[in-house]
């Protein structure tokens, strides 16, 4: 099990961006890094550090995915036909925890992962408790009947922080949604600029 116990907002501080666009992010008040050296003057980053930062942003956004698993997504993206960076985004957006987050069944990717692990989600009527499960076009994702009235679900569905993207369809009265099609990078509503092309450069060095 990879170590994800660090505060998720430390990722924001370290990267210097409000990764999930949340009002409570500490970056809104402190735009420098954490720790006693966080306010040092920044030097011009090297190409390597720019690529590394792009990778860390993408990994962090999807709930701080472990390096081994993230590398597998890169390898699969390379194997597929078409633009490798677009393929990488498509694979990440098909993760069940990403889909549950996008459908506004959970307030953060971390909450979505926990929600799935605890058995609250079904895919095409079958319980799935694996957050990294890859959803296919046309799959129906639903909150289980006994979980539909949980406060965390209702709060997430009513949140005005973000909208459900067009490649998904959702009915919040039934707490049910569908994955309609492969998203392009331009379709994904990232609060910050993501640069998967730099991630591809990082791994292909």
UniProtKB/TrEMBL annotation:
Mind telling me which InterPro entries this protein's record contains? Ribosomal_uS4 (IPR022801), Ribosomal_uS4_bac-type (IPR005709), Ribosomal_uS4_CS (IPR018079), Ribosomal_uS4_N (IPR001912), S4_RNA-bd (IPR002942), S4_RNA-bd_sf (IPR036986)
SUPFAM superfamilies for the chain = Alpha-L RNA-binding motif (SSF55174)
The GO annotation for biological process reads: ribosomal small subunit biogenesis; translation
- Swiss-Prot/TrEMBL keywords: Ribonucleoprotein, Ribosomal protein, RNA-binding, rRNA-binding
GO terms for cellular component: small ribosomal subunit
Q: Which Pfam families match?
A: Ribosomal_S4, S4
A GO molecular function held by the record: rRNA binding
Q: Which domain of life is it from?
A: Bacteria
Q: What does this protein do?
A: With S5 and S12 plays an important role in translational accuracy.
- Assembly mode: Part of the 30S ribosomal subunit. Contacts protein S5. The interaction surface between S4 and S5 is involved in control of translational fidelity.
Q: Which NCBIfam families match?
A: PRK05327.1, rpsD_bact
Family from the record: Belongs to the universal ribosomal protein uS4 family.
In Swiss-Prot or TrEMBL terms, this protein is called Small ribosomal subunit protein uS4
- Species of origin reads Komagataeibacter rhaeticus
The lineage, from the top, is: Bacteria, Pseudomonadati, Pseudomonadota, Alphaproteobacteria, Acetobacterales
């Amino acid at each position: 099990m990879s170590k994800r116990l660090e505060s998720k907002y430390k990722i924001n501080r370290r990267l210097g961006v409000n990764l999930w666009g949340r009002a409570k992010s500490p970056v809104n008040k402190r735009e420098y890094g954490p720790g006693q050296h966080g306010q040092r003057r920044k030097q011009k980053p090297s190409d390597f550090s720019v690529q590394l930062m792009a990778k860390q942003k993408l990994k962090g956004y999807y709930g701080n995915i472990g390096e081994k698993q993230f590398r597998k997504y890169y390898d699969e993206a390379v194997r597929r036909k078409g633009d490798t960076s677009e393929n990488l985004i498509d694979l990440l957006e098909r993760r069940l925890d990403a889909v549950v987050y996008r459908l506004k069944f959970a307030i953060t990717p971390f909450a979505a992962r926990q929600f799935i692990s605890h058995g609250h989600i079904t895919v095409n009527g079958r319980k799935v408790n694996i957050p990294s499960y890859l959803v296919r076009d046309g799959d129906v994702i639903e909150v289980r009947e006994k979980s539909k009235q949980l406060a965390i679900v209702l709060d997430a569905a009513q949140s005005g922080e973000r909208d459900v993207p067009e490649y998904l369809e959702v009915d919040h009265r039934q707490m049910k949604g569908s994955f309609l099609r492969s998203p392009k990078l331009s379709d994904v509503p990232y609060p910050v600029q993501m640069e998967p092309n730099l991630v591809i450069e990082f791994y292909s060095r």
